[in-house]
Design brief:
100 residues; alpha+beta; D-amino Acid Aminotransferase, Chain A, domain 2; two-stranded antiparallel sheet; 3 helices; 6 strands; 24% strand; globular
Length: 100
């Protein structure tokens, strides 16, 4: 999403822990965490020590994708049933962290 929606080049690679110390922003992503900004690592502030603008933008985009508000990302979602009650049955999307 950073590349396609925000035009930010992205790279997937292993990093050294020390790279986190000098980063402007850090966030974690995953099915459970969704987008979780990180403001410190090992008691060291990241950037300004507050959630940065990039993390905020990506968090906002992701929060639009998961409940299926962004049709262009429907292929990321797997319908799941959240209630067994016929009265309250509805489907919600969950994202997969694996590449498709």
């Amino acid at each position: 999403m950073a590349k396609s929606e925000l035009g930010i080049p992205t790279y997937e690679r292993q990093i050294d822990r020390t790279e986190l110390y000098t980063a402007d922003e850090v966030f974690m992503c995953g099915t459970g965490a969704q987008i979780a900004p990180v403001v410190s690592v090992d008691h060291r502030s990241i950037g300004t020590g507050e959630i940065g603008p990039l993390s905020t933008k990506i968090q906002t985009l992701y929060s639009e994708v998961v409940p299926a508000f962004r049709p262009e990302y429907m292929h990321w979602l797997t319908p799941t049933q959240v209630s067994n009650s016929k009265k309250n049955r509805r489907l919600v999307g969950t994202t997969s962290t694996t590449k498709k």
